[in-house]
Amino acid sequence: xxxxxxxxxxxxxxxxxxxxxxxxxxxxxxxxxxxxxxxxxxxxxxxxxxxxxxxxxxxxxxxxxxxxxxxxxxxxxxxxxxxxxxxxxxxxxxxxxxxxxxxxxxxxxxxxxxxxxxxxxxxxxxxxxxxxxxxxxxxxxxxxxxxxxxxxxxxxxxxxxxxxxxxxxxxxxxxxxxxxxxxxxxxxxxxxxxxxxxxxxxxxxxxxxxxxxxxxxxxxxxxxxxxxxxxxxxxxxxxxxxxxxxxxxxxxxxxxxxxxxxxxxxxxxxxxxxxxxxxxxxxxxxxxxxxxxxxxxxxxxxxxxxxxxxxxxxxxxxxxxxxxxxxxxxxxxxxxxxxxxxxxxxxxxxxxxxxxxxxxxxxxxxxxxxxxxxxxxxxxxxxxxxxxxxxxxxxxxxxxxxxxxxxxxxxxxxxxxxxxxxxxxxxxxxxxxxxxxxxxxxxxxxxxxxxxxxxxxxxxxxxxxxxxxxxxxxxxxxxxxxxxxxxxxxxxxxxxxxxxxxxxxxxxxxxxxxxxxxxxxxxxxxxxxxxxxx
Length: 534
Description:
The chain is α/β, with parallel strands linked by helices and 534 residues long. 48% of the residues lie in helices and 11% in strands. The strands form three sheets. The protein has a nine-stranded mixed beta sheet with strand order 9-8-7-6-5-4-3-10-11. A three-stranded mixed beta sheet has the order 12-14-13. Strands 1-2 form a two-stranded antiparallel sheet. Helix 1 packs antiparallel against helix 2, helix 2 (25-41) runs antiparallel to helix 17 and helix 20 (469-481) packs across helix 21 (483-501).
């Protein structure tokens, strides 16, 4: 029913815009195609109804609202890069916590003056950003400026904040509610007080977080718990207790976030922090099952929406902006690579110059692509000149599947990397253990093909001393996504390509999974040939 209401609301907005002459017919068609594909990425989301509004995802504006209407108008623009989706402003680096994974690290000092933040907010409004998140550090460490900033932004954007809960109080929350704040996102990384306090480096972090969730729910905020989920938590199942706790506190959603190599997380020696492909598969299965269940809380996983087969990395498309407490502008809060500083140049100038080099959302999170360069830099964030020198390489990465459906087939020359495949798939599959090979298979002979990967079996028309790289990648795809999803992926993309090109061979070659297999084969052959060239 919620998806039906969303579709009806979307059609009403597009129809009204078309009748008023604000949206051309081509824009309506483009928006509907884009919405259909984006909705596919959100197909397993659980919607939340609150205060007469519907919340689809913690990073999407609620509807009906002016911010949602702005987002839909942005959907009608057929530009590359697409219009922006949200911005984040770091109010301060000050924070009472010392989290092992924090990307800020609390190493810099001297926050932006209030006047600079208010000017920045006006520029974000003028540039059409529909959502704004206030982050830190701990935003409550600078409460008066936070309240003023929320008050300035809320008439024009959907505003929300991230907090550890330390420094929050019923009175402060009430003042933020009156200023127009819509959502409060509270960090909670363990269901046990001692474990959470240890992760956050603060003796009252757990109590503060729990109290803040309860108080924010009581004051009718949209409340989302943020759990930085490690590989260890997935394997021992302890993340489930955090979900149960969040639900018992009254939270409307919980974000099971992936920790990426930025800030303290990049330097941590703790094992079992970063998620593997198997960890992600387990979380995706949990996410789907729980959101289809009758339990009240909604499970959200921002990293899942950023996977190659969904929305991808929005940073390369200039859809997100992060401004740190010193004024450095970054395409993503986790990408410690500056594109300019608002204390030196206006944000509008920095952003428009950057957008000229932005393209589409790519399939691979570019935090990994910049990891070595940022790690080797003595200056953080990476200076703007160095960021932009590397930028053409990351924008040439493969387009995310959803946007390939919106803007057309992937670029033939798009660059894949071994890191891309290692992060997306398990490449340590063993023959006879993780998959089998059926030599002289009747199926392969009947189809008159040399190889056919299907599920966990490679069918071959002859003997197979070594599994070809191309087919190995297909086996990894089946292991990651399962037979129904892989088959559906081929059918959906092949049919779309056939309609577009009237050429079955070309349509098959442009299926994203098939393009991946060819690219993986090429990379492996190049790596094998490298010693011979030397």
